[in-house]
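G., the chain you wanted modeled:
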Amino acid sequence: MSRTTLGLMVVAALIAVHVLFIAPLDDKREAMQEQMFIDHKALVKFERFLASGADSQKKLDELRQELKKLEKNIIDESDPSLAFASLQSDIQDMADGAGLSVNSVKPLEPQEADGYRTMPLFLDSSGGMEALSAFLKMLDSSRKLISLEKINIAAAPRGGLRIKMEFSGLMKR
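Predicted structure as tokens:
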């Protein structure tokens, strides 16, 4: 065997080793590097989360205090019929104080939600734009948590406005 043949065989063996053993490892090495990069990003994310644990607890405590303050302004009745009566009385007082004429008030079906019950109430009233504006200002400045869900304003047959509104009050279950 000549040196040239021996040299060619060595080169062929090196190429075969590279193709069969080293080249497939390059793909695996790249995949492992990508996985390590993804794992590193996740680890950094979790480290940030753990570092902010005290801040999260502080924010949670602040939200609980805010919830306690807001719960003082919900309907303070244990019975749904009494809650509707209280809500109706509050809205009636505001409407009377603003100068709106109440044609009818009708409680709607209560909704259950996360330990609370929403108490929807329909109000059909009439009056002028000034009375409506005064009523909405009173509702907005009220300490009670009463929200105006829907409003329909139309011209009344004898002048003025016909105002249909749907309100929602909140009570604890």
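The first helix runs from residue 3 to 51.

Shout if anything looks off.
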